[in-house]
Amino acid sequence: MKKICCVLLAVLAAAGMLLLAGCTGGGEEPGLFAEKSLLTEAEAVTLVKDLIPKALTIHLDVFSGAEGGALKVDRSVFLPGTERIENGQYALVTGDKIKSVADLKTWVEETLTPEAAGELYYNRYLQDPDQPLRVLDPDFDPGADSLPQYYDYEGKLYKHLTGGKGYALIWEYDRVKIIDLKENAVTAEIEVSVFDDTEIHIVRLERRDSRWLIANDIHGEYRTKTLAEDEVKAIIRELIPQAVNFSHAVFGGGGGLPLDRETFLPGTEKIPNGQYVLVADDKIKSVAALRVWIEKTYTPEMANTLFYDRYLLDQDKPLRVLDPEYDAANDRVPHYYDYEGNLYALAVGGKGYEWEYQYDTIQITEISAEAATAKIEATCWDDDYIHTVKLLKRYGVWLLANDFENEFVEK
């Protein structure tokens, strides 16, 4: 998955200044395709790409609490009476375009319908101009009382000084898909990357008074993207060999990790079936590191069931093989053990490996945004079987969620 960096508000700030440059308080430009009530698909895509950055400027810059960009403030000029109120300071909004809440609404409604703007911003961040500012009330409680983001006072506009919002969404403008085209209306989808996940956001446009506007909450109306079947098959082809390595090599004595068979855990050199040798791997130097490696293939729950409970037991206790009463035939001992900053492995014989998976036979039987189930054929000696593979998505990563090697039926 793509690694995501937080979107810098400075980028949107520049866009905001361009938006303000076109706001003249009544003689603004009508916007793209204003004369057309029914758009072509190409025109609709262009329009979506044009309006989303403007909506993000409103969302992140104007109503996020961040300073600068679309609306700058003068921190040396405060709304009288708020200078020393903790979490209640209001500073003067500067610039020639936006001088009142009414101007602000006019500008916002060059991008959003009045209904969308009201639901998303006005009802939450603005207040009735006839109501006194709560912060000036002697009973004001900064921990409980909500305050408007902007406030008119004696012909000037003031902004509440608060921290900005964090933002980790990347809007993929080359992945816009038009879902519906109607007279004066467009519905589109756009992919949005969020850390290691991909979401499909809905964008609804309406033409009002010869102007195309966003008519919905483009942040709140979305679903998590479901992988295509070929993508799930590719994940299975990648994960099964890793899983086999764990079950038949790392925990099967068949290799998996490089071992220095001349360096023993002190005291185990001459214990029959109890020798521990040094793991000579630069990255796997502890049981904790081993777990991290395993959990790149299996969910923690399945890793615990398959390996931890059976092969990593009693890590917080003295090593059983060093007990004079150790019985190699009956006592269970961990397969790996931490000792003085090094990782040691129990020197045991390897498991025989029988399954041969036929990756071209993978069939997806169930798929959702967070889970998938598939069937894969495998041969064992001269017999054919069908194995069930289950996947779960955890923190943006697809992992094996079942003991697929033992969940099978004869073909």
In words, what does this structure look like?
- This protein is an alpha+beta fold.
- It folds into 3 domains: 1-225, Roll (Nuclear Transport Factor 2, Chain: A), CATH 3.10.450.420; 255-346, no CATH class; 354-410, no CATH class.
- It is built from 7 helices and 18 strands.
- The chain has helices at 9-21, 41-62, 101-108, 114-125, 229-250, 287-294, 300-311, and strands spanning 73-78, 90-93, 150-153, 156-160, 169-182, 185-194, 197-208, 211-214, 222-224, 259-264, 276-279, 336-339, 342-346, 355-367, 371-380, 383-394, 397-400, 408-410.
- Strands 5, 6, 7, 8 and 9 form a 5-stranded antiparallel sheet that branches. Strands 14, 15, 16, 17 and 18 form a 5-stranded antiparallel sheet that branches.
- A hairpin with a 2-residue loop joins β16 (383-394) and β17.
- The longest helix is centred in the N-terminal third of the chain and has 22 residues, at 41-62.
- The chain is elongated.
- The model is unreliable at 1-18 and 21-27 (pLDDT under 50).
